[in-house]
């Protein structure tokens, strides 16, 4: 793996290499014919009428890969998809982004893509929850909904005709994410699943796995009803200027914070090792660390990396045996 | 540096107040330090240090020169820092110059003491070859490859590691030189003298966030700081230099408290660094 700069001692190195070998042997059985490296020739059935896509080129009458990756075929199009590619949004993806600009009638978000995504004011629920036409007053009050540098969870609505990426955040579960931390991992580690919002009840934390590689780990927040929120927000605005003492009382309780840090460290370890991130793997890693009574900070130490690699190798061998 | 939302800032401040930071470190715990020596073979000594996502490289080159007339029995050391554009987009072109100048000055103050040469962490008299005529000039160049906070500590550690990796060639001085004549010197290519680094201090940066101090702040935590003090402490617990950054003023009692905290942390850091440096040199020999 790229950049595993952890100093392992001799026994740890042996165990680590053994776990990696086991993982490699398990994975190479499937999909071996689909993976190509540079200058591998790509087998095509029909030489006439094949479209050469990204990552291919013609050489001596046969199609040769110019990238390292996986061969994808769509009808007559053949292309090579790299593994560590930039995030490629698809409609319906749940993503986590950061507001970088408040523009007329829209917010611009940074989502780890080659362009910034746009969240229109009309694609966002108003604070009072009424479905109505957005007026000029709404436009002037955009900052009261989202400000610069806010972390937001939204869904990809689609691409505009001019190429812009549009988002929507109409449901109750989307919106601003507060009281937690944002982690960045390579986007290819997050696979598209049915559920990207996870509420880990055992620890009382929310886990949002954005398909763009932004992972949010935070304190659990109940999805608030809009009517109730309107009354509450009025009283909050009155006491918005809080002193340091009041802020201290508002800090996240220590136990929840420990769970947040443990989950965040589990995600960090898994992303450095290059394993796919999903709720099951994360909860297993967190349970592994708490069952072995490993101090949360030691989760970033060499020993835990080796343990996680071994646990993942065991888990995958169990899965293949079941098949 | 990306901005942080109010909720994230609150989370960071709460973590520091509750002694459980974002990656579960305590306030006075360092990130894992990874040292690699001998990364630049053409230099007399070099080292790369990684503290979390902060990565710096230091190299030492030794050249023969003439000592200054004020200090004829001491060699010279010059420290330069360069912030590479790969570290942050802001460093492209001349953007990193301000930070480089600030880091160079801080390092010089922390490691070399004042202008008179008093209180230097690096023993300059060991660099003298012929008093008044020839001395070794050490040029220490540092490169910031990637920045995630706490650059000064990482640079201090890299310089300490590079100096322990430095081999100064043995010099044979031709006997019988008189008066103002430049004596002939024969620089050996084979034999090297290891530079004595037992007196080189480490730099500890204490960042104040709210009412608490933390050690080894990440870039996110540094954005929340009110002020920071960098203290260089040597093996014997003596302070070799100090710099203060940040806009907030500090009460003198707070500074004295921070110095004693830095002294306490330095004991563990020196032990950790020494073991990492020897592990790196063992790895290099393999």
TrEMBL record, chain A:
PANTHER family: EXOSOME COMPLEX COMPONENT RRP4, PNAS-3 RELATED. InterPro entries: Exosome_RNA_bind1/RRP40/RRP4, KH_dom_type_1, KH_dom_type_1_sf, NA-bd_OB-fold, S1_domain, S1_RRP4. SMART domains: S1 (SM00316). Signal peptide: none annotated. Keywords: Exosome, Nucleus, RNA-binding, rRNA processing. GO terms for molecular function: RNA binding. Belongs to the RRP4 family. GO terms for biological process: CUT catabolic process; exonucleolytic trimming to generate mature 3'-end of 5.8S rRNA from tricistronic rRNA transcript (SSU-rRNA, 5.8S rRNA, LSU-rRNA); nuclear polyadenylation-dependent rRNA catabolic process; poly(A)-dependent snoRNA 3'-end processing; TRAMP-dependent tRNA surveillance pathway; U4 snRNA 3'-end processing. This is K Homology domain, type 1. It is found in: Nucleus. GO terms for cellular component: cytoplasmic exosome (RNase complex); nuclear exosome (RNase complex). Residues 90-170 form the S1 motif domain. It comes from the Eukaryota.
TrEMBL record, chain B:
It is found in: Cytoplasm; Nucleus, Nucleolus. The keyword Cytoplasm applies. Residues 30-169, 199-263 form the Exoribonuclease phosphorolytic domain. Transmembrane segments: none annotated. The keyword Cytoplasm applies. InterPro entries: ExoRNase_PH_dom1, ExoRNase_PH_dom2, ExoRNase_PH_dom2_sf, Exosome_comp_Rrp42_subfam, PNPase/RNase_PH_dom_sf, Ribosomal_Su5_D2-typ_SF. GO terms for molecular function: mRNA 3'-UTR AU-rich region binding. One of its GO terms (cellular component) is cytoplasmic exosome (RNase complex). Belongs to the RNase PH family. This is Ribosomal RNA-processing protein 42. It comes from Dillenia turbinata.
């Amino acid at each position: 793996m790229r950049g595993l700069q952890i100093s392992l001692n001799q026994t740890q190195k042996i165990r680590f290499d053994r776990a990696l070998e086991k993982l490699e042997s398990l994975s190479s059985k499937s999909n071996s014919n689909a993976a190509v490296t540079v200058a591998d020739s790509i087998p095509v059935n029909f030489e006439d009428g094949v479209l050469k896509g990204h990552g291919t080129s013609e050489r001596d009458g046969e199609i040769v890969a110019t990238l390292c990756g996986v061969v994808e075929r769509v009808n007559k199009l053949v292309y090579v998809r790299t593994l560590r590619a930039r995030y490629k949004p698809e409609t319906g993806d749940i993503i986590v982004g950061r507001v970088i600009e408040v523009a007329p009638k829209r917010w611009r978000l940074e989502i780890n893509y080659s362009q910034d995504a746009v969240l229109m004011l009309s694609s966002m629920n108003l604070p009072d929850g009424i479905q109505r036409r957005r007026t000029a007053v709404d436009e002037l009050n955009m900052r009261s909904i989202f400000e610069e540098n806010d972390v937001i969870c939204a869904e990809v609505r689609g691409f505009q005709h001019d190429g812009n990426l549009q988002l929507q955040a109409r449901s109750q579960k989307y919106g601003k994410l507060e009281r937690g931390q944002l982690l960045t991992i390579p986007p290819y580690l997050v696979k598209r699943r049915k559920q990207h919002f996870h509420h880990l009840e055992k620890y009382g934390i929310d886990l949002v796995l954005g398909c763009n590689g932004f992972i949010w780990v935070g304190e659990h927040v109940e999805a608030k009803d809009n009517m109730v929120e309107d009354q509450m927000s009025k009283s909050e605005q009155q006491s918005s200027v809080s002193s340091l003492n009041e802020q201290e009382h508002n800090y996240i309780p220590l136990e929840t914070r420990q769970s947040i840090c443990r989950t965040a460290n589990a995600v960090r370890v898994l992303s450095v090792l290059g394993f796919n991130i999903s709720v099951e793997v994360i909860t297993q890693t967190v349970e592994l660390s708490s069952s072995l009574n490993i101090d949360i900070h030691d989760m970033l130490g060499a020993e835990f990396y080796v343990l996680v690699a071994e646990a993942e190798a065991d888990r995958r061998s169990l899965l293949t045996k079941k098949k | 540096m990306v901005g942080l939302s109010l909720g994230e800032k609150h989370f960071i401040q709460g973590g520091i107040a509750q002694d459980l930071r974002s990656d579960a470190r305590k306030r006075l715990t360092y990130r894992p330090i990874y040292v690699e020596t001998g990364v630049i073979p053409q230099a007399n000594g070099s080292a790369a240090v990684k503290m979390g996502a902060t990565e710096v490289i230091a190299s030492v080159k030794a050249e023969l020169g003439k000592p200054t007339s004020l200090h004829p029995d001491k060699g010279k050391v010059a420290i330069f820092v360069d912030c590479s554009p790969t570290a942050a987009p802001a460093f492209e072109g001349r953007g990193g110059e301000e930070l480089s100048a600030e880091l160079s000055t801080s390092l010089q103050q922390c490691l070399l003491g004042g202008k008179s040469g008093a209180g230097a962490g690096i023993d300059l008299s060991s660099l003298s070859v012929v008093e008044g005529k020839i001395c070794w000039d050490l040029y220490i160049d540092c490169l910031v490859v990637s920045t995630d906070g706490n650059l000064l500590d990482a640079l201090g550690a890299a310089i300490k590691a590079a100096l322990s990796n430095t081999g100064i060639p043995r010099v044979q001085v031709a006997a019988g030189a008189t008066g103002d004549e430049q004596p002939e010197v024969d620089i050996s290519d084979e034999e090297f003298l290891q530079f004595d680094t037992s007196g080189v201090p480490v730099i500890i940066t204490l960042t104040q966030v709210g009412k608490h101090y933390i050690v080894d702040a990440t870039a996110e935590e540094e954005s929340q700081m009110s002020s920071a003090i960098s203290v260089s402490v040597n093996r014997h617990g003596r302070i070799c230099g100090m710099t203060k950054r940040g806009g907030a003023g500090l009460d003198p009692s707070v500074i004295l408290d921070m110095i004693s905290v830095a002294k306490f942390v330095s004991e563990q850091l020196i032990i950790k660094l020494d073991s990492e440096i020897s592990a790196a040199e063992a790895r290099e020999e393999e």
